[in-house]
Design a protein that fits this description.
Length: 303
């Protein structure tokens, strides 16, 4: 697998990290940052961010872990393949397989994983499909996808309108987002961040660099289309299964997820060993209260 890793250079946003590109067996390229020594810890971002969302947390964790912060397929500087039939190429099953293959290429057959938002949904599927690989899993500010769709009401549909906007048939959402991606991105982050300065101007510019790409806009929609379709099929087929790895659920006390769900209880319905904790912030925990997130992750993964 060594030949599938290509050095890119030092990360401009994650202090002390180096960037690499990894090519999967399916020829999908994943951009990732790596630093540190110790047990392996994979960090997965959500929408509309990239692996850069972990910039305030990853350097602290790298004092104790080998930290790998990766761009999901479709996001950042990773490949943006076509969605395929039923949007299968953006199913959480396929997205999880990407990341497990990356960790194996780095020599890590078993590892910790923490995911936020879309990355947490990938981590959820990873824990089900690859129980031998996932030692512990932390999920930031999500309830299970199937649970959230099943309990949809007017309040949720209003607050999380993009769950229903992105899944509209191509090219409606892509054309509308592409008309003014900066406005859409700024409005989206503004709805989800607690403090307005949680995402610094230079970081917003980096997110916007990626979000301006029409292929990213399409991939984002494919990600959500998969969640409203093929992912629900996979979830229904595995409804009898429970995550075996110890699971930490964290959420923002001022987030939509925190306001609308008993988050810990939703995960007790999906996993055997669950701990839950609300943090005093909005949706983007790792950007709004990074020191506390790092502390919680360290305590959980080292326990």
């Amino acid at each position: 697998m060594a030949n599938s890793l290509t050095p890119v250079g030092p990360s401009p946003f994650l202090k002390g990290f180096d960037l690499f590109d990894f090519t999967t067996r399916a020829k999908t390229t994943l951009r990732f940052a790596i630093a540190g020594e110790g047990p392996p810890l994979l960090l997965l971002h959500g929408h509309p961010q990239t692996h850069v969302t972990w910039r305030k947390v990853a350097p602290t964790l790298a004092r104790h872990f080998t930290v790998i912060a990766a761009d999901l397929r479709g996001y950042g500087d990773s490949s943006k393949p076509s969605g395929g039939d039923d949007h299968i190429n953006y199913s959480k099953r396929v997205m999880a397989r990407d990341q497990v293959e990356l960790m194996q290429a780095l020599g890590f057959e078993r590892f910790f994983v923490a995911g936020h938002d879309r990355g947490a949904r990938v981590a959820h599927r990873m824990a089900l499909d690859h129980p031998d690989a996932v030692a512990r899993v932390a999920l930031l500010d999500i309830a299970p996808t199937a649970t959230m769709y099943a309990r949809t009401d007017r309040v949720f549909a209003t607050r999380y309108f993009w769950w229903f906007f992105f899944i509209q048939p191509y090219p409606l959402p892509e054309r509308l987002i592409g008309n003014d991606p900066e406005f859409f991105l700024r409005a989206h982050l503004g709805r989800q961040n607690g403090p307005a300065d949680a995402t610094e101007p230079e970081i917003f510019s980096e997110y916007l660099r990626c979000y301006r790409d029409p292929m990213t806009q399409h991939a984002v929609c494919e990600d959500y289309r998969a969640s409203a379709g093929i992912d629900l099929v996979h979830d229904a087929a595995d409804d009898h299964k429970r995550i075996a790895a110890p699971l930490l659920a964290m959420w923002g006390a001022r987030s939509t997820v925190g306001a609308l769900y008993d988050v810990e209880q939703t995960w007790l319905e999906k996993a055997l060993d669950v701990k839950g904790r609300a943090l005093d912030c909005g949706h983007n925990l790792q950007e709004e209260c990074p020191a506390l997130v790092a502390e919680e992750l360290f305590s959980f993964f080292m326990s």
